Structure formats: structure tokens, C-alpha cells
Amino acid sequence: MKTDSELQSEVFTELSWEPSIQAKDIAVSVKDGIVTLNGNVPTYAEKFAAESAAKRVCGVRGIAEELKVNLMSPHQRNDSDIASAAVAAIAGHISIPQDRVKVVVENGWVTLSGALDWNYQCDYAHNAVRYLVGVKGVSNNTIVKPAAVSTLDIRGKIETALKRYMQKDSDGITIEANGSKVKLRGTVHTWEEHDDAGLAARSAPGVSAVENNLVVSYL
Question: Which domain holds residue 179?
């Protein structure tokens, strides 16, 4: 088990290793394996990348991401321009159904809403706008309205997918399905397994939402 001091050093090293991040402007603190990121970053994309980089470090149990987006002059745009760019980006994405996502922008913060058929389409909508110039943050409030599938069938398909996805035994994961909503509980060995399990559940036919309560344990 790594000490908090070791984790702090390794997280900062990983931030410095990632070329899309200006790590010198990010402060890293660790307590009981929980990493807190503080500081200012010039874009929302960098904020997202910093969180992803911290999760890659073995031993990190959780992340408190408190980074603030402080846009530089070349990246500043008014809300109208950001909204127009966001609408165009979503409309130009082949995997997002046309006219199903609404965009609202306030002070550089983009809020997405609407009903889609699959969870991956909600993810693509977020991805389409998070790299746009001027964006300070994204609230993805899109929802999934899938075709009706039995709870038993949902659970069975997720269990089968987990066996394909997991590097180690997936028996430690409990799947709770209530209608189209799924909760995952239990313990996994890495953040990669944590995210893969969530992806497996989100990709199952009939699933509208996934609450990933899996705990990462390196023991």
C-alpha cells in the first residue's frame, strides 16, 4: 500500500507526464488515498484531462477535483458564439440523433438536455462540446429513454459483459436493476476495472442510468 506522500508524488508526476496539462498550475494533496486537485487551468478540456490522469495512478482511492477554468484571452468567447458552436458540433456528429439535444450556455458553462436512445450518445454529446473554445464547464443533463427490456434480461446481459471486460474475477460485483436503472456494488482492483464495469452496464440494452458504487481496493 502506497503512502499518501508517495501517491502525491506519483500523481504530480503523472500530471507532468501528460502533455495536454500544465501541471505547474495544479496543486496535489492526498489524505487516506483521496486525491484533491486545486488550482487554475486554461481550458475545460485540460480540467477533464487532469482528473483522468490522476485516476490512472495505482493506489488512488478517490478524487476531489476542485480545479477552476481561467480562460486566457485567445480562448474567451461570448455565450452566443459558444452556443452556436455547440449546436453545430452536436448536429455534425453522426452518432447523435438530430434535433434531440438542447444547448443552453450561461457564462461559458454549457448545459445539455434532451432524451436519447443510448448512453453512448449522451457521452458523445458531452465529448462534442467539451473541447470547444470558450467552454468553462459542461453539465450533461441528457437522459436515456431505452426500449423496454426485462430486469432479468438486463442483469444477465451485464453479467455476461462483465466477464468479457474484467481482467480478474467479476464475482465480487453485485448488479441491482430497478426497471431501466442499474446500481453496481462491490470491490474491484483498479480504476480501469471500475470504469470498464460501468461502461459494460451503460452499454446494456434497456439501461437508462448507472450508479457505479464500486470501491477500488488495491489489496
Answer: 151-216
